[in-house]
């Protein structure tokens, strides 16, 4: 029996991982396999974790989550050989990926027969400026979507929802637009009622040359950070950042790991839970060195921020300097 695929797309920081986490935590008896780009981003409640090994997090409810490493089609083939086989596969794309290219890969006849692409979900931050939808990447993400889910409604100003809905309509997108408060989307929209049929092949549009538009810069520290200095540093970097995320410890709360996120001009810091510790354990094999106190990945447009400038600003956050 074919295993339907749900493809989750959306720009950097839109809230894709929150949607995937909600699906896994509320599987309602479905055996779901999630394929994500960032293994460490999985944040399932600790009581759901059954174990982690070989790059796979197993959940007590029968779901699994694995990291997308290398070829997508090879990853899917590995999942389809698992026993028991998943009933659904969720693929979370990178925020800078053109989903049309992923759709084109999933139209491979062998994959289409075994794991047909059933639904494409585009997650969009409600606070996204309407003008941003003129960007080629945003348009591509909207164009392939069956459903557009508006996220972070609680963080947007009054009227933002109406503005972005109007902007989506102006793009002549045929997708259904729904609210996704805290990542929650009606499961009936995402999963087919029956799986004894294969959806018709999709037409992702003409193939376009790949555009290298973004780059990632990493920064680590073996020392905890000053929260006040971190706030100042992010304030200086914010105009140049598309996205940032990481794990860190602060001198204000020694020994307690925090998850740092920056998206759509907003920075948040929240306690890391036990599930992230499981993810770290799965990745730290053998005699791997201890993880640094702070490790943060910054995503920027090409050329707007040098590694030297980033290091100079972030080094001011280290508490003993």
UniProtKB/TrEMBL annotation:
GO CC annotations, alphabetized: cytoplasm
CobW C-terminal domain segment(s): 214-318
Catalytic activity field: GTP + H2O = GDP + phosphate + H(+)
Pfam families xref list: cobW, CobW_C
Gene Ontology MF terms: hydrolase activity; nucleotide binding
Lineage: superkingdom: Bacteria
Keywords associated with the record: Chaperone, Hydrolase, Nucleotide-binding
Family: Belongs to the SIMIBI class G3E GTPase family. ZNG1 subfamily.
Function: Zinc chaperone that directly transfers zinc cofactor to target proteins, thereby activating them. Zinc is transferred from the CXCC motif in the GTPase domain to the zinc binding site in target proteins in a process requiring GTP hydrolysis.
Protein name: GTPase
Organism of origin: Bradyrhizobium canariense
């Amino acid at each position: 029996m074919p295993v339907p695929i749900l493809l989750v797309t959306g720009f950097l920081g839109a809230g894709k991982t929150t949607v995937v986490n909600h699906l896994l935590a509320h599987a309602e008896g479905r055996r779901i396999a999630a394929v994500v780009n960032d293994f460490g981003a999985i944040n399932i409640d600790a009581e759901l974790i059954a174990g982690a090994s070989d790059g796979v997090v197993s959940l007590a409810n029968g779901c699994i989550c694995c990291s997308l490493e290398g070829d997508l089609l090879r990853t899917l083939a590995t999942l389809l050989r698992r026993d028991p086989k998943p009933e659904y596969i969720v693929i979370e794309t990178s925020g800078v990926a053109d989903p049309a290219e992923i759709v084109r890969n999933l139209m491979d006849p062998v994959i289409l027969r075994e794991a047909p692409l059933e639904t494409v979900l585009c997650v969009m931050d409600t606070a996204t400026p309407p003008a941003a939808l003129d960007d080629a990447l945003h348009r591509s993400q909207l164009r392939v979507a069956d459903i557009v889910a508006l996220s972070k409604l609680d963080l947007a100003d009054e009227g933002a929802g109406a503005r972005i809905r109007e902007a989506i309509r102006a793009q002549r997108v045929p997708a259904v637009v729904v609210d996704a408060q805290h990542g929650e989307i009606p499961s009936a929209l995402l999963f087919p009622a029956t799986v004894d049929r294969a959806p018709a092949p999709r037409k992702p549009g003409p193939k376009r040359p790949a555009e290298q538009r973004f780059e990632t810069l990493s920064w680590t520290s073996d020392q905890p950070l000053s929260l006040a200095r971190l706030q100042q540093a992010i304030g200086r970097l914010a105009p140049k950042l598309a996205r940032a995320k990481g794990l860190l410890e602060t001198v204000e709360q020694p020994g307690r790991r925090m998850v740092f996120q920056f998206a759509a001009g907003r920075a948040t810091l929240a306690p890391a839970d036990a599930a992230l510790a499981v993810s770290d354990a799965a990745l730290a094999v053998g005699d791997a060195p201890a993880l640094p106190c702070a490790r943060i990945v910054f995503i920027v447009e090409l050329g707007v921020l040098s590694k030297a400038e980033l290091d100079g600003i972030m080094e001011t956050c280290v508490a003993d300097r």
